[in-house]
Design a protein that fits this description.
about 110 residues, Gyrase A, domain 2, about 35% helix, binds the ligand C[C@H](O)[C@H](O)[C@H]1CNC2=NC(N)=NC(=O)C2=N1, EC 4.2.1.96, lyase, 4-alpha-hydroxytetrahydrobiopterin dehydratase activity
């Protein structure tokens, strides 16, 4: 099986059903324990802490690079020493495989 981190996001402009709760729960097993599935099953979120702003922004820039390369973009909350990411697929109002592909690519980033 090709790991999520090795896959590429597919363009999504609607017209497909969001993942069911069962499908989302199955994909949760393929991302790190940092990620939490929202109670409504429509998004995933994670929070990381960093020792200072430099390390925070290094991570944020790496995430932005993934998002641009995959054309799939998280909501980000950033401050001194922390970053929170929330992924969902706006075009379908819920989760798609793209959200889990990006989450797995974020998991693969080096932590500094
Ligand atoms: C064509 C392209 O896939 C879409 O415009 C993308 C861009 N980035 C996106 N990011 C997210 N999170 N959800 C989307 O539906 C979305 N749509």
């Amino acid at each position: 099986m090709t790991s999520l981190a090795e896959q590429r996001c597919k363009p999504c402009e609607g017209g497909v059903a969001p993942l069911t709760l069962d499908e989302a729960q199955a994909l949760m097993k393929q991302v790190s324990g940092d990620w939490q599935l929202a109670a409504d099953g429509k998004s995933i979120r994670a929070e990381w802490k960093f020792r200072n702003f430099y390390h925070t922004m290094s991570f944020v820039n790496a995430v932005a690079h993934i998002a641009n390369a995959e054309d799939h973009h998280p909501d980000m909350e950033v401050g001194y020493g922390y970053c929170r990411l929330n992924f969902n697929t706006h075009a379908i109002g819920g989760l798609s495989q793209n959200d889990f592909i990006c989450a797995a690519k974020v998991d693969a980033l080096p932590r500094t």
